[in-house]
Amino acid sequence: MNTTNHQPRKASHAEPEGLTIKQLKSLILKNWMLFAVFCTIGLILAFSYTQVILPYYQISTTLLVKDDNKTSELTDIFQSSRIVNSRKAILDQIGVLKSYSLNLRTVQYFNWQYSWYKKGYFEFNTDLYNDEPFDVILPNDAIQFDRVWVFITPISDTHYKISCDSKRKVDAHVAVLQFEKTMAYGEMFKNEYFHFGIKKKTYRTVNPGEEYVLKFNNLSRLALYYKDNLIVKSVDENSNLIVVEMKTHQLPRDVEYLNKLGSFYIQYGLDEKNRMANSTVRFIDKLIEGVNVDLQTAGNVFTDFRAKNRTVDLGQEATSVVERLKDIDRQQAELNLRLDYYSNLKYYLDNKDEIKDLVAPTLVGQSDEALNSLITKLNDLYSRREVLSYTVQAKNPTLVLLDNEISFTQKVLGEKVNSLIENTQLELKSLGDRQQKVNVELSRLPKTEQNFIGIKRTYDLNNELYNFLLQNRAEAEIARASNNPDAQILDPADIEIAELLGPKKLINLAVGLAGGIFIALAFVILREYFSEKLTTLETATALLEFPIASPISLSKFKNEVPVLQFPKSAITESFRGLRINIQNTIKDNQSAVIAIHSTISGEGKSFVALNIALIFAINGKRVLLIDGDLRKPRLHHVLNSANEVGLSSALQYETPLNSLVCRTNAQNLSFISAGPLVMNPSELLNTDVLGKLIAALKPNFDLIVFDNAPIGVVNDAMLIGMHTDVNLFLLRLNHSGKEQLNRINKIRREAILKNVMVAINGVKQMKGYGYYNEDIKVVEDMSVSVID
Questions:
Q1: Do 414 and 357 fall into the same domain?
Q2: CA 733 to CA 731: how far, in whole Å?
Q3: Residues 697 and 556 in one domain
Q4: Which ranges constitute the DSSP H helices of 482-554?
């Protein structure tokens, strides 16, 4: 006879190391209702979130920064007034767009002193930009408390309710704003925090009971908000494209803001390019104003002299003297103009606050490339410093290095200007010496010619200088007019192409569904992990050190003998499978003894023992069913049998077999009841009488089935199990504990009992069992009972 029908597996701990896919699938199927509930809750929450939360968009505008190193063809014609501005680095342009001053300028343009919102859920208020329900009347001298929600609720066509319940930290204390008052439209509301009135818009409909929110803004803080929320980046390190992005709940408002910010940025760049041109025009206008007065005076004197002296004809010698004096005068005028420019330049260098007003040296005929390069460089350095100062602190290393470079460039430029002033003064002195020599020749001419030459020289000199300045001014104006912006807007922000970031309905629903599944799965896994109950067949398989003999399907019939009444049902099929496993174990036995054990009560051992006995009896075996539970016998109630004589009687008094064994109305099935209750059942079972009784019964039966007391409560079942060929332990899902499997493992491992097998009771019907007419009764009201 075989002692086991399976090779033992490696011992496992009380808990499985992890859930297998099969176990997980079983848990999910078993708790499908829980998953359905959690998934439904997740979908409801996701849908509610989608309906409640404000839409969240990403808007952007794309700017192209031009590479404008070269001047236009028009400005190239007038080299004397050409103004060169080097292209600013892309990072500098990003700094300008992110600067506080540019954002403040944009906010001040819109003058958003207050904002209106429609009251929503969980403080998700909808911005009513361009759809404001009321006009706000603001006194000129009133200061409003900003960043506080003030609730406005229309009551009727003439009145509304104003209320506030908020706290805000102001300096070192917390201001508590709590008020509620009914006001008439147009009436001024005034307290220590606010002073304003509200007037209905004639074209806007408001319904009584609707809640609106009024919030006063601090423009400086609003500019900081936009500055911090702008995302400005270059498309590529080799590209001149800049993208300005913003994420917003206020789509119409912020689309307008982004586009206006781009316009002001372009204007800022154009103003920077025109700055030197404007300084040049102002400087020339100042010179023209002085020359014009001198020209008018000289013209009047020249006209009066000719009128008094008629026409004065100059001789050849006088003409030669005049031409030489005119040449000297012209050179002196140019040198004096240069000297004025250098003095003006020196003044600007000594006054750093006015350094932006540097004038281009080309307007005075100065073609010194070194001077021109230094001025252009200094102008560019100051522009870069201004941009950088918007975004960094004074001690920033980059700003410190830039200041050092500016100081060095100013020093070099100052030395260059001083050198040019000295050279110009020397040239003027040399011309003065030449002029004195010519004046000696002039003194030899007649007095009338001398006076005429002097008056004409003054007039001609001022006239030439005036024309020269007018020409330079015209060229400077042309240069200024030809300046183009350094940037242009390629793609303005647009409501129609704003990207919806959330809430996205389908994604949120998917997240809600996944969240419901995850929570349900986590709950099921944790409950399974910490539960002491045996909940799934897969868990039992993982905890046992040997294979399960057979699962027994959960019975859906209120009947003790489904194998007779419902032979095509799933539970009957499971008993047939159990019979095959037992037969494979006892196939060499002429007559075998089987003990049905449970570790605790309520696992269905009496039900299983009866139906195993019947399934063998139906198969043609002569079967004897013995109720071995001498403490709480039950089978005699099921079989409608008296319990006056039974196993306890045979153990005490050696009752004859023909008095013990009773026939039942089920073919091939006999029965021995437990007999009268005794005080010491363990003592009775722990004698050789039981072995002799079994030996005496074996020749008359092919199979003897014992229904025993729970093995985890008393030792009775162990004593009976020592005399049996197969010990079938019964466990029931959602009733038996996991710890009970450890005890069964120990019994099997230490060979305390022979041929230990395990059957799992209460397993839900699996596909394939009882797939045809399983609920049809073969025999109506069939029962098993003792007939004699």
A1: yes
A2: 7
A3: yes
A4: 505-530, 537-543
* Tens-digit pLDDT profile for residues 580-626: 998 888 877 778 999 998 888 888 889 999 999 999 999 899 999 99
Are 705 and 612 in contact, with CB atoms under 8 Å apart? Answer: yes
- Are 735 and 760 in contact by the 8 Å Cβ rule? The answer is no
State the Cα–Cα distance between residues 657 and 693, nearest whole angstrom.
Answer: 9
Residues 508 and 599 in one domain: no
Contacts 24+ apart (CB under 8 A), 490-495: 490/62, 490/63, 490/64, 490/241, 491/60, 491/61, 491/62, 492/61, 492/258, 492/259, 492/262, 493/59, 493/60, 493/61, 493/254, 493/255, 493/258, 493/259, 494/59, 494/255, 495/251, 495/252, 495/255
Nearest to 378 by CA among 361, 365, 395: 361
Confidence of residue 397 (pLDDT cuts 50, 70, 90): confident
Residues 523 and 482 in one domain: no
738 token code pair: 């996991």
In a domain, 125, yes or no: yes
CB proximity list for 222: less than 8 A, separation 6 or greater: 107, 112
The rounded distance, in Å, linking the Cα atoms of 102 and 125 is 28
Considering the domain architecture, whether residues 513 and 564 belong to the same structural domain is answered as no
pLDDT of residue 3: 41
d(CA 496, CA 517): 37
231 within some domain: no
Q: Are both 445 and 521 inside the same structural domain? A: no
> What phi and psi values does residue 737 have, to the nearest 5 degrees?
-95, 155
| Domain housing 165 | 113-216
Residue 9 lies in a domain: no
Kindly state whether residue 117 falls inside one of the protein's structural domains: yes
User: Among candidates 144, 138, 142, 137, which has minimal Cα distance to 164?
Assistant: 144
Based on the fold, state whether residues 157 and 210 are members of the same structural domain: yes
Q: Which two tokens stand for residue 238?
A: 């080799």
